[in-house]
């Protein structure tokens, strides 16, 4: 059964334990609350870095060396390294597999002679969110002759 993380309480605990000079606090709190270290680090970073936009937060959590608070940066990095389900290593593996499958899809479409546009072409055309490939439907002109 999923039990949500009591963020205000966990955040207060994080602050008090950091004030005592403890290390790896986010990882320890994640274990004690049965929560993902990666996700908990993101939630705590969001509290610490308020006000921050979601895109900025995502970028900082993925690049903790850019977080100005050095202790928070180390905590976020440590949580990402130690989370075997959502952390940096798992993210890199999923990304690599995704690229591999995308290349395989393009090879198969090329072999079958199916026209498509890939992400790079769609971005050049101004699309913000793009699928791996977008199949092109070639229009054919035809003349319909009515019976006389």
Features:
59% helix; 2 domains; single chain; mainly alpha; 148 residues
Description:
The chain has about 150 residues and is mostly helical. It contains seven helices and two strands. It has helices at about 5-20, 25-35, 35-50, 55-60, 70-80, 90-110, 120-125, and strands at about 115-120, 135. Helix 3 (about 35-50) packs antiparallel against helix 5 (about 70-80). The radius of gyration is 24 Å and the shape is elongated. It starts with 6 loop residues before the first helix and ends in a 13-residue tail after the last strand. The mean pLDDT is about 90.
Task: Give the helices and strands, then pairings.
Blueprint: H1 7-19, H2 25-33, H3 37-48, H4 54-62, H5 70-82, H6 88-112, E1 116-118, H7 119-124, E2 133-135
Antiparallel strand pairs: 1-2
Helix pairs in contact: 2-3, 3-5
> Whole-number radius of gyration?
24 Å
Biggest beta sheet attributes: 2 strands, antiparallel
Strand order of the largest sheet: 1-2
- Summarize the amount of helix as a percent range: 55-70%
Number of strands: 2
SS strand fraction: under 5%
The number of domains: 2
What is the count of helical runs?
A: 7
Structural class comes to mainly alpha
Helix/strand order, N-terminal first? HHHHHHEHE
